[in-house]
Amino acid sequence: MTDTIFLTGVVATSPRHVTTSEGLAITSFRLASSQRRYDRALAKWVDGDTNWFTVSTFRALATNAAGSVAKGDRVVVSGRLRVRDWESTDRSGTNVEIEADALGHDLSWGTSVYTRHVSVPA
Amino acid sequence: MTDTIFLTGVVATSPRHVTTSEGLAITSFRLASSQRRYDRALAKWVDGDTNWFTVSTFRALATNAAGSVAKGDRVVVSGRLRVRDWESTDRSGTNVEIEADALGHDLSWGTSVYTRHVSVPA
Amino acid sequence: MTDTIFLTGVVATSPRHVTTSEGLAITSFRLASSQRRYDRALAKWVDGDTNWFTVSTFRALATNAAGSVAKGDRVVVSGRLRVRDWESTDRSGTNVEIEADALGHDLSWGTSVYTRHVSVPA
Amino acid sequence: MTDTIFLTGVVATSPRHVTTSEGLAITSFRLASSQRRYDRALAKWVDGDTNWFTVSTFRALATNAAGSVAKGDRVVVSGRLRVRDWESTDRSGTNVEIEADALGHDLSWGTSVYTRHVSVPA
What we know:
The structure is a homotetramer of 122-residue chains.
Chain A: E1 4-11, E2 16-19, E3 25-39, E4 44-58, H1 59-66, E5 74-87, E6 92-105, E7 110-116
Parallel strand pairs in A: 4-6
Antiparallel strand pairs in A: 1-3, 1-5, 2-3, 3-4, 5-6
């Protein structure tokens, strides 16, 4: 339950799909999430600041995401947050990752045609 | 933030789409959500009990849901929970509703072809 | 992750603490959760409808809750939602339960003096 | 609803309480959140990696937090996530903040004595 996050946003990079030597499918992409807030002066909802995340999916979700999600799509995501510092020879930084438990196209912004597969997700 | 819920499940009834006399689009359906739990004796994930909800969507999300979601689809939903008692002349009961903020097909169980619409959701 | 809920509310009954014959500590109480919403006409936050839940806690959390939580307290809760129908000889109904993963006093409404115990929660 | 996060963790710094020239009370502290995961080989729950956050509270919650929360306390937090890059003359980095909606002591790890204040939180 800890560090569980739910969010909606725009897929900002083409999803990258790899299979490890152990056979684990992984699909990942960058996600831009703009927070909507109600502006009392304007009396309407406006975009707030944008958060950037790296979203990673695994196994059946990774395979299906690779065949479904494209740059520019609006998606809904839930998962566990991971905040990680990194360092290379000349630079360092912080990466904010989401290991996705669930992912889907956001129907507030479009329609989707869905094909359900029969197998149980691993 | 209060009473916010996130869940995944199976659409159990054909979505019902109506437009009120004020022009508000509403789409609603029943959702069956089976909790997955790790069975230590079996050393694998198994289905637990099932929760039943009425999911309601409004405005652009309602219109897009009506054109996208079918009985049997696996979906991801977030929204606010509403627990309501009801009474008729000879019966009474409790309905557990979710007013959805976000909804999408669950890519753990299938693939989807998405068409993003240009307008901003109301 | 499925059916995860987070909410705040008022403890509406005195917590009931029992220990099963297997030695499992359980503390449970009713929780009233009023949804706050922004009323654009009044230009302020107002109370909306109230949801009622049975909150159950187990093990170390149950023992500490029994010694800390009283009727009337404001609390924050997260856990898994369970919607269950029940039937007796002459009546039937639906109970909405939360199996709490985490529980604490809501510091938006008061102050608390905390004593941390050394043991790891079971 | 977007970028909503719920988590539990340990308060890692003494809370810092300030009041702005406009009279806004702010209390903030660093939070270390260790993810617990079930290790199938060991057949028990173990600590995973640790996420670090800056938690900020405002208004009544800030005032009560300043009078209640100390370094080393276990807390439950919900709020909105903000990922922000920063830059000074010679360094740069990323800060991961949580603007807390709700905060309380985690009763899985200790007991608390609560005093409810009568006023409605701003």
